[in-house]
UniProtKB/TrEMBL annotation:
InterPro entries: FAH, Fumarylacetoacetase-like_C, Fumarylacetoacetase_C_sf. It comes from Subtercola boreus. PANTHER family: FUMARYLACETOACETATE HYDROLASE DOMAIN-CONTAINING PROTEIN 2A, FUMARYLACETOACETATE HYDROLASE DOMAIN-CONTAINING PROTEIN 2A-RELATED. The keyword Metal-binding applies. It holds the Pfam family FAA_hydrolase. This is Fumarylacetoacetate hydrolase. Residues 73-284 form the Fumarylacetoacetase-like C-terminal domain.
């Protein structure tokens, strides 16, 4: 099952059709795309009997952030050894955790204004908590995941590296810097298409002149801390809440790690694709 945020309303998506949840359930479930996680197990029980292909056709540009207002956002830094290496750090022994403020959350097909000339890309698999809790074991962690989505951890490197030591969250939370979507895909659907623990993560840049370059091409099996490990380690410190989001880290290939460094420019188009999960697109423009 794929659930999404269509013009601010919760829908179940099948191909290019979307079934409005509130209307199809005669009001049993709210139209709020974020609120569904508080009733996740009940919702799944109802939704599995629905035919989303009977819904209305929709345009991708009408999709909002698949998870629009999570209570907590956990972003994991340096979670691929290759990315830690290109960033000049040793692979961490414990998860490196920061946040992306929810005002930066955006839909999967958007225009983004560049605030400066040091904006970078970071393709990431996003995990969404369905059932919260504390002290969740790794063996039980997948049962607490509602589904997976595609995210970009866009980063203003100038702001990120203000001062010593650097701080991450502000530079990664400008308007439109946390696109997530196009939907939240439940694990049972992913399992019919791929191995949930070994998904390809691919990020491609198209320049204004039409030239293209694959920027990142990794696999989630190379995470230092897997999704079950992250759930266990985070929940050992605090309570995970339904609808919380985990940006699970990015593989090698970011612009800041190159020589010479490479950043996004006006006219660029960034396409991020994760196997069995989906594709998101951002188009970049300069400030007026």
């Amino acid at each position: 099952m794929r659930i999404a945020n269509l013009s601010g309303r919760l829908v179940i998506v099948e191909g290019d059709h979307a079934l409005d949840v509130e209307r199809a359930s005669s009001g049993a479930f709210s139209s709020d795309p974020q609120g569904v996680y508080a009733r996740w197990e009940e919702f799944v029980g109802w939704a599995t009997s629905q035919d989303a292909s009977s819904g209305e056709p929709f345009e991708a540009s009408a999709l909002g952030a698949a998870i629009p207002r999570p209570a907590q956002v956990f972003a994991i830094g340096l979670n691929y050894a290759s990315h830690a290496d290109e960033s000049g750090f040793e692979a961490p022994k414990d998860p490196v955790v920061f946040t992306k403020f929810v005002s930066s959350f955006a839909g999967p097909d958007i225009d983004v204004e560049l605030p400066g000339d040091t904006v970078d890309w970071e393709a990431e698999l996003v995990a969404v908590i369905g059932t919260g809790g504390t002290d969740i074991s790794e063996d039980d962690a997948w049962s607490h995941i509602a589904g997976l989505s595609v995210g970009q951890d866009l980063s203003d490197r100038t702001v990120q590296f203000w001062g010593h030591p650097p701080q991450f969250s502000l530079g990664k939370s400008r308007t439109g810097f946390s696109p997530v979507g196009p939907s939240v895909v439940t694990l049972d659907e992913i399992d019919t298409l791929a191995d949930r623990s070994d998904l390809s993560v691919r990020c491609t840049l198209t320049r204004a002149d039409g030239s293209t370059e694959v920027l990142q091409n990794g696999r989630t099996r190379d995470m230092i801390f897997s999704i079950p490990t992250l759930v266990a380690r985070l929940s050992a410190v605090l309570e995970l809440l339904p609808g919380d989001v985990i940006f699970t880290g990015t593989p090698a290939g970011v612009g800041h790690g190159r020589t010479p460094r490479l950043y996004l420019r006006a006219g660029d188009v960034l396409t991020t694709e994760i196997e069995a999960v989906g594709t998101i697109v951002q188009r970049f423009a300069g400030r007026p």
